[in-house]
């Protein structure tokens, strides 16, 4: 929960508190058990998120040189004699340089974002090939949870995860898939909340059944 609040801001926490004010599992949001731990984790996640953003930019693959766009021709600013003054020429040159810098920064950020996304996708594809995990089957079980969040739907999703928790790689792939679903751009509040219910239920079951690999993988994405 702390990671999702750190990523999505206090509005997500506020909506969750409104929806879950009667749910004892979320009592830590209202000063109940583990409230201090939750606040500590939230502060830690916010700090790590800031650090990670800086590290991602530093660790991004080398960026190909970006061709510099041609400078826009300076618009002639006529003086009373019809010739631009030195001050006007300097101002126009500064404007051209600012436009060029903004263009280069936008292209660089786009390339960094694209390189990071490609790297993550390649890593997930590699793990998928190694584990032979059927993510389409997983998605088919997640959809009823997203739509209705019934006990039967959550139980079916939980049982599938435990049946496929065959190695740390299997567990990490399932946990990453859930995190990607929750943090995806455009993911609505109900989707995030219902998948958090599933994760919370699986975490409690992991503790009872001593399923350490799945517990460790899920703890990387939630409190």
Automatic annotation (TrEMBL):
GO terms for biological process: intracellular calcium ion homeostasis; RNA processing. Coiled coil: none annotated. Residues 130-223 form the CID domain. GO terms for cellular component: perinuclear region of cytoplasm. GO terms for molecular function: RNA binding. It comes from the Eukaryota. SMART domains: SWAP. Residues 1-39 form the SURP motif domain. Pfam families: CID, Surp. PROSITE patterns: CID, SURP. This is Calcium homeostasis endoplasmic reticulum protein. It comes from Micrurus spixii (Amazon coral snake). The lineage of its organism: Eukaryota, Metazoa, Chordata, Craniata, Vertebrata.
């Amino acid at each position: 929960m702390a990671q999702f609040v750190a990523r999505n801001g206090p509005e997500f926490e506020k909506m969750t508190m409104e929806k879950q004010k009667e749910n004892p599992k979320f009592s830590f949001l209202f000063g109940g058990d583990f409230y201090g731990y939750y606040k500590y984790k939230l502060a830690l996640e916010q700090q790590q998120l800031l650090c990670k953003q800086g590290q991602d930019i530093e660790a991004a693959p080398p960026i190909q040189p970006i061709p510099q766009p041609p400078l826009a021709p300076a618009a002639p600013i006529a003086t009373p004699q019809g010739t631009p003054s030195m001050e006007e020429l300097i101002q126009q040159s500064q404007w051209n340089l600012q436009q060029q810098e903004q263009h280069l920064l936008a292209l660089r950020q786009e390339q960094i974002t694209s390189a990071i996304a490609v790297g993550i996708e390649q890593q997930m594809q590699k793990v998928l090939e190694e584990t032979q995990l059927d993510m389409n089957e997983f998605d088919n079980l997640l959809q009823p949870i997203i739509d209705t969040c019934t006990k039967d739907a959550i139980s079916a999703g939980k049982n599938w995860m435990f049946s496929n928790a065959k190695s740390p790689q299997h567990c990490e792939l399932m946990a990453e898939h859930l995190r990607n679903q929750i943090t995806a751009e455009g993911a609505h509040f109900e989707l995030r909340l219902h998948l958090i219910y599933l994760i919370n239920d699986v975490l409690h079951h992991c503790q009872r059944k001593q399923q350490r690999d799945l517990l460790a993988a899920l703890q990387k994405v939630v409190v």
